[in-house]
Design brief:
This is Protein kinase domain-containing protein. This protein has two domains: 4-128, Roll (PH-domain like); 213-439, Transferase(Phosphotransferase), domain 1, CATH 1.10.510. The chain has 13 helices and 23 strands. The longest helix has 20 residues, at 225-244. It is α+β, with helices and mostly antiparallel strands.
């Protein structure tokens, strides 16, 4: 074993004998449930706390963790230090120390290529310090703040989590689970770096201009039917992904669902899952929360507060009005048809599965209407703006260059509707999906203070206030 004669000296100088191990069993961990991904493995030296010596072991490096055999370390709970010890001319080894209040682990690496690979994982997933000395924070009106690297000018979205919201053990479990899940669930939700300051955690994400559904509503965003259908459908697709993984989101709300306002296509990002293992919650809670979200959008009235109660009488009343063909809905601008209310009722009563919700008549009807509208405009040879599905997302692409041919659309029309995204093509203008630039483009730099993102780890259970109304918390 290389440099074995130096091992006692290294152990003594770093006081390894006085430390406790950070490794814990993965039997009751999300890490085991996901079987972690982005795995690579390296044979390096680890300090064995039982044997009190450095031992050569194969270590697996995953998306959130490193583990050996059936034990793991969750990296977002750890700080890190890195050293290089030079022994001879052009020879030496690297030492990575992982630590927190519970213990320390020591990784000894002699190969520079190995070290570079491992270093990238450690720096990404472990806790870093000194955010304010490396980045400048910019607040965006109505959108998530972003940080700019002072050296290379790189931009990142930042989620700021107040430590005061993470008090109990359940809060802590939810917080760490949210990082694990967001890293795993999609490219858009991956956390690329984590900083810790005195009062908060700062989670870095890929730079996007993200605005919450709540902010969109309050800033007079016009939820036309096709975009609204697409948003609800994409949320259902994401919830289906959660269900297939054997977990639930637990925090579906107007505050936790964001639209990528800077993207070329309609893209939703669902943040802040609140998942706890070993409890009786499941995907039905997500469907209930989605029903409440749809209710808040459907019955939102301008210059009014977002409704905090679900009124079953109001749903019944509006359904009866819509059934009267001579009655035009003028009170609720985002209520379009009876099938919308039917899906809403089924979500609120938890009488529908995610799979059946994805096949609901509301989606089918809107898709058929858009087909007819598309064909009409095609015959008139107008310049069209189209929405094209790409990888289960709604790719909003200008078709002025005729990227969507008549032949391609004919093939789409003949496809099985149950197996297709309901709105594959339409004449919607993607730029009308964005509220005015004047509301969103102003950025305010903040170098020495933070604006808190409201994570709110309170109990999100919903309660019926009576038989006719449902409290939305």
């Amino acid at each position: 074993m290389q440099y074995i004669q130096y091992h006692p000296q290294i152990i003594e100088e770093l006081k390894m004998n006085e430390t406790k191990s950070l490794f814990q069993s993965n039997e009751v961990s999300l890490i085991k449930l996901f079987e972690d991904k982005d795995l690579f493995k390296e044979i390096i030296l680890l300090y064995n706390h039982k044997k009190k010596e450095l031992v050569q072991q194969q270590v697996h490096f995953g998306l959130n963790s490193l583990f050996i055999e059936n034990k793991y370390i969750l990296l977002c709970k750890c700080y890190y230090e890195m050293r290089y010890t030079k022994l001879k001319q052009n020879e030496g080894f690297y030492i990575i120390i992982l630590h927190n209040s519970k213990g320390k682990e020591f990784l000894i690496i002699s190969n520079s290529n190995q070290f570079s690979k491992i270093q990238a994982v450690i720096k990404r997933f472990c806790l870093s310090k000194s955010f304010l000395s490396k980045y400048q924070l910019f607040e965006q009106r109505n959108c998530i703040p972003f940080a700019q690297n002072c050296k290379n000018q790189e931009l990142y979205c930042v989620l700021q989590i107040d430590k005061k919201q993470i008090i109990t053990e359940s809060d802590q479990e939810q917080f760490y689970n949210s990082i694990i899940i967001m890293n795993y669930i999609s490219e858009q939700t991956k956390i690329v770096k984590i900083y810790e300051e005195n009062s908060m955690y700062i989670l870095f994400m890929k730079y996007m201009k993200m605005q919450s559904l709540e902010s969109l509503i309050l800033n007079d965003f016009e939820f036309r039917e096709a975009p609204l259908v697409c948003i609800i459908y994409l949320i259902l697709q994401t919830l289906q992904k959660y269900k297939n993984l054997g977990i639930y989101h637990g925090n579906v709300s107007l505050k936790s669902i964001f639209i990528n306002m800077s993207g070329a296509f309609l893209q939703i990002i669902i943040l802040f899952p609140k998942y706890l293992m070993n409890n009786n919650k499941n995907s039905q809670l997500d469907l209930l929360n989605l029903g409440q979200l749809l209710y808040q959008i459907t019955f939102y009235e301008k210059n009014d507060k977002i409704k905090q109660f679900v009124d079953q009488k109001l749903i019944t009343q509006q359904r009866q009005l819509l059934q009267n063909m001579n009655t035009e809905n003028k009170q609720f601008q985002f209520l379009y048809r009876i099938s919308q209310l039917d899906l809403l009722n089924q979500l609120l009563s938890q009488s529908i599965t995610i799979e059946n919700a994805l096949k609901h008549q509301w989606f089918i009807t809107v898709k058929q209407n858009l087909k007819a509208e598309f064909l009409k405009e095609t015959k008139e040879r107008l310049d069209l703006h189209t929405i094209v599905e790409s990888n289960n997302e709604l790719s909003m692409t200008l078709s002025l260059d005729k990227r969507i041919s008549t032949k391609e659309f004919a093939e789409y029309v003949n496809s099985e509707i149950e197996d297709e995204f309901p709105v594959k093509c339409s004449i919607l203008n993607p730029f009308q999906m964005n509220p005015s630039k004047q509301k969103h483009d102003n950025c305010i730099p903040k170098s020495k203070s933070f604006s808190n993102f409201d994570l709110r780890f309170e109990n999100k259970e919903k309660y019926f206030a009576n038989e006719q109304s449902l409290l939305i918390q």
